[in-house]
Design goal:
The chain is built from no helices and eleven strands. The protein has about 120 residues and is an all-beta fold.
Length: about 120
């Protein structure tokens, strides 16, 4: 059983930056691909990006490419989402998730989820 806890959310002005963290406990962190998702008011939870278990491969949705970067530190059991050049439309609750089987953009492929952290971007 894996537990995930996100942190680092808050209020930031458009154009600013935030770094989110997701700390994992239980299981073997290095065995999981780690995804980031977000859910804005009135919208479905959507894929943001994913990082492979070794941290070498990443994939992002088009709306965040060039602005967001996922990284991981397996020694600390932590995955990060660095968000730069934030836009108002990035406002959402951000979730991290662990995929025991494979690297995926589908939310139903993930086995474990954190509770989310709120990111508010103001204009």
């Amino acid at each position: 059983q894996v537990q995930l806890v996100e942190s680092g959310g808050g209020l930031v002005q458009a154009g600013g930056s935030l770094r989110l963290s997701c700390a994992a406990s239980g299981g073997t962190f290095s065995s999981y691909a780690m995804g980031w998702f977000r859910q804005a008011p009135g919208k479905e939870r959507e894929f943001v990006g994913v990082i492979s278990r070794n941290g070498i491969s990443t994939y992002y949705t088009n709306s965040v490419k060039g602005r967001f970067t996922i990284s991981r530190d397996n020694a600390k059991n932590t995955v990060y989402l660095q968000m730069n050049s934030l836009k108002v439309e990035d406002t959402a609750v951000y979730y991290c998730a662990a995929d025991e089987m494979a690297y995926s953009i589908r939310r139903d492929a993930y086995d474990y989820w954190g509770q989310g952290t709120q990111v508010n971007v103001s204009s």
